[in-house]
Input
Amino acid sequence: MAVWLARASHLARRAAARVPPLLRPRHGDPRPWFLGSPPPVLGSPAAVEGGLRGFCSVRRFAGESGSAAVAAAADDEEPETGLTAGDQAVDFPGGKVSFVAEMNFIPESQRERINCYRVLDDDGRTISGSRFQEVSKEVALKMYSDMVTLQIMDTIFYEAQRQGRISFYLTSNGEEAINIASAAALTIDDIVLPQYREPGVLLWRGFTLQEFANQCFGNKLDYGKGRQMPIHYGSNRLNYFTVSSPIATQIPHAVGAAYSLKMDKKDACAITYFGDGGTSEGDFHAALNFAAVLEAPVIFFCRNNGWAISTPTAEQFRSDGAVIRGQAYGIRSIRVDGNDALAVYSAVHAAREMAVSEGRPILVEALTYRVGHHSTSDDSTKYRPVDEIEHWRTARDPISRYRKWVQRNGWWSDAEESELRSKVRQELLQAIQIAERAPKPPLSELFTDVYDQIPSNLHEQEQMLRDMVKKHPADYPTDVPV
Amino acid sequence: MAAAAATASSLHGVGAAAAAKPRSAAPAARRSVRVAAAGSSRGRLVARNAVAAKADEAAAAAGSKSGGHEVLMFEALREALIEEMNLDPTVCVMGEDVGHYGGSYKVTKGLADMFGDLRVLDTPIAENSFTGMGVGAAMKGLRPVVEGMNMGFLLLAYNQISNNCGMLHYTSGGQFKIPIVIRGPGGVGRQLGAEHSQRLESYFQSIPGLQMVACSTPYNAKGLMKAAIRSENPVVLFEHVLLYNLKEKIPDEEYICCLEEAEMVRPGEHVTILTYSRMRYHVMQAAKTLVNKGYDPEVIDIRSLKPFDLHTIGNSIKKTHRVLIVEECMRTGGIGASLRSAIIDNFWDYLDAPIMCLSSQDVPTPYAATLEDATVVQPAQIVAAVEQICQ
Output
């Protein structure tokens, strides 16, 4: 018991040390520009006066006359701020808590939704007064050309699936800015744990179109050795953990990876991506909680694209999106316009800096829209209006918006645009041809990598299979090497 | 304990060297220890043959040159953890109450003071998530030892264990490995109720990519823990709630046990009794009665639940031609069911009688002591079964 109490007060001291002081002067503010004003400490006079009282309905028990009289008496003697003379803060597990005589329920939602950080307006002009992380021309152009490449890649692979050349595909239409700009703000040492709609991060890091095609065709050059369905890319060389289909399982992995980085004291963070749907999984909540307790350097990046297959966000949660949940776990969070490449770049850049230098998790919610269907197995016109999709595909397209900004800087021209597009298209079509013709992985790769070395029972099974193929060659495809 | 002696003595020379090497040379030392254990040409698997000499009653580690020291099983597990954590800085422990509290069964007692809060991590209550965290850390290069407070709670971690632990090495094409150890107490205890008395080894046995071992003595507990930590594959180590206070003398020098190897507990001629974990003790108790009645049972603690050590088991069956499996797992779909099937596939011609399998009842473990006793296999049943097989 004594040990527990000692720990509790120790934890309380640490927690108290972490809360930024309320009344630090703004001038000569050592805090980085992106941190904004310090959060109010709950229970402070400022917070109470500021409108919390007026905001929520205070319920008085309509009871017998006795209690009504007591309530009336309490009414009279209460000062305006809501704090009574007897207020004191008392130690409970977790720290000091102020008492209050008013029974106030924290409302289920704040009066206003959390604001969304944005740099470029819909027309690609920087909003006056916006603050953002500058990008060099080189980085800006790489960002743009990778966004275009991602878009073309999605179009062509999707078509290939429709033609029956690959079995499955999943596009990132509408989320190109999220993919590329977030990747651009990271370093190659940062560990990426994707959900499945983030191939752009791999693209940014140098995964070639041929490598993408090899995985989609599951040929013997696929780094996954043909074991996963298309779009389940992975590359240990590029620090991109192999995609695993179940939703949100990668979120606790990210905490583990960040924990490992922390133990090694590396100048790197982990970043994990997931959609609005993924925030409903238990793994999301526990991982955020863990990361906060562990003080792990991890960025939780939520791509709130409005839809989880056919489930709209209104049916996914009742909170103000994902960003509002960060504070519940003690995590610094930001909401950003996911279709604004510069805003995403700035936010992730800042998040990374905080994660690495302060050893803390950050939650980034990027608001965007899933322009494409969930995957090639889905027809989203069944559950959402076509004009909604068209609106986001055209008027809110992140690529054209960013292009306008790049072109206005004099860094890009229409001629270069068509040249890029046709070059990428050519390259991709060729890569697909090559990938399609390449042989599939041999049967011997069916049993390897289950363990680090093949155990005897799997050896046996492999032998039985080979014997079967040898005995009945007509029943087995001739183009699969044995 | 004869097989244990053989293993210990064969490792004696190498073990001392391994213990003495500095941290930076640890991988090389580890490899040489493993090669010594894998003496025969079959490489990693099923290396040491069981020694045919009759086991004596004494539980002393006969191969120990320096006398050995007595430990309780939870201390043996702790010793293994401490040794491995000293040898390799990437080994870390995570679980509920493993840090300052020292673990619910004291396996990690004192480790947090020795290695710090980060390497002996207290986690919030979210089994799926700290197991997932262990997977992520392992993929990044650490060697986590994840403790489930009770194996039953690891059902909450089943998603991460099955979908990721077992799979990611394969689906990533070998790019990422997951050298994680998942351990915890399971089995039927003394009136701990249904949720805390689970026998769920079989729930995990189909998962491709996993290895499973069950320890039963302080000696093999320490050896298996060390081997599991050093393994590149995910290993689930099943401990038993009632065995943590077993006392035994174990060698002072370093040793590991082979993960895939079964342990010859008592050589015999009449019947092969295959068992693991706590049931080993019920079997040995029944063996006393059987010996008095004139039977000569051969008792093998299979230890490796996935994969089965069919080499040792097969040699035994070829000798006795009769098999009795005694397990704590459920009858339906239990370890015994798979073992029976594997024996039939491989050793059908050597059997003179149908394989008998004694398992626990297909019921959630009841709380009342009498009912609880009736749920698991008791020595009297084992004696009766042997008599039936051998008639």
